[in-house]
Amino acid sequence: MRPCVARRWARTSDRGAFIHVGAIIGTCMVGNVFLVIIPNQRKIVAAMLAGQPVDPRLGAMGKQRSVHNTHMTLPVIFIMISNHYPAVSGHPKAWLLLALISAGAIAIRYFFIQRHFGKIQHEFLFYGAMLIFGATAIASMKPKDKVEISGEVSFATAQGIIQKHCAACHAATPTHASFAAPPLGAAFDTPEQIRTYAPKINERAVLSTSMPLGNETGMTDEERAQLGAWIKQGANIP
Questions:
Q1: Could you read off the pLDDT of 156-182 as tens digits, one per residue?
Q2: 3-state secondary structure string, 40-66?
Q3: Cis ω before 212 (30° cut-off from 0)
Q4: Global pTM value
Q5: Distances (CA, A) of 210 to 17, 74, 82, 232
């Protein structure tokens, strides 16, 4: 892998990785429909209209791919809304959380599929609940080596961190090449704006560490701790 490509891959955010996984699964689902299910149905219909025997393998293959798509539905839906759950997508073990939640969703989906055919298998509900509970327990764990900040953190220090790591995107006129306007309208140009968005800054940059995206600016644990300490002190702005 070329160095420039490697650097871009290293900067890929966890949220972006979630979307990539969703795109891969979605592509498989679309492929199942347009490359197997629909073509096989056309072959079956054509054979019936021509009065020829129908190859049973065509129906079996279509059913198999339909079952695959059915099981992948819930994981894909979760990935689609994962942007709203930074505690998962921004977690250091986001890959493990995604795997556990997806496996749990598949188990739960399988239970309802079997119930549709009159088969009640509660063990699959139990498997799904345990997998999702495991993901919840992991997401709730606090980091072991948390940086502790003693003493009061000044607004100047917090503002410096925000200007260094956030203002490229979150400004009235962003300097980041990916944004023509501040995401969600959140600009941190003035002390009043910083105070308004302090809870969100704490949620994304301190607690979940999902911002900056892919930690492109190299925000350190100490800077996150300082920012969190300042917000905890009441976001005091002179």
A1: 998 999 999 998 999 999 998 888 898
A2: HHHHHHHHHHCCCCCCHHHHHHHHHHH
A3: yes
A4: 0.61
A5: 12, 23, 12, 19
